[in-house]
Amino acid sequence: MRIGKYIETRWFKKRFLYALPPSTEPRSFTPGDKFLLDTETEEPQKGLFITTFSLLCKETQLKAAYTFVACNCSESVFWHDNVPLSPGGALIYRSFVEPDFRGNKLYVLLLNLVTVYFAEQTQNKPEMYYAVIEESN
After folding, report:
1. Residue 107 and residue 111: Cα distance in Å, rounded?
2. CB atoms inside a 10 Å sphere around CB 89
3. Are 120 and 13 spatial neighbours (Cβ–Cβ below 8 Å)?
4. pLDDT tens digit string along 95-129?
């Protein structure tokens, strides 16, 4: 569900902000036979956890798609990528699908893997996910 549009003043780009509900019931969701999921979480800073999600092609070992997710585990609003992130919220940003892998719905797969990962693998359970997408996409 698109909830807003804003202009990134530093780059003069229009961006859209979408809201995604968390997985209501944990389910096993795998990247399939062609891809592997790789995750890396940075040490928390000021209540903000940043996790990188990457889809790697099994055949070529190349990174096919990636995204970053910032989870606000603090008690206050945190501004990240010019978006206010409320407590318990998660911001999906800087997503990219390599040109050779486009047209395979990898971004949708990546979003599903993100919500399942947080529902099944971590103690951090975001109440809502927000995705920032540039108008050119």
Report:
1. 6
2. 21
3. no
4. 999 999 999 889 988 988 898 888 887 777 898 99
d(CA 64, CA 77): 33
Residue 69 to residue 87: CA distance in whole angstroms:
14
Element (H, E) at 107: helix 106-120
DSSP letters for 28-77: -----SSEEEEEEEPPPBTTEEEEEEEEEETTT--EEEEEEEEEE-SSS-
Q: What is the dihedral of CA 113, 41, 60, 64, to 10 degrees?
A: 50
> Do 126 and 71 meet the contact criterion of CB atoms below 8 Å apart?
yes
pLDDT at 8 over 70: no
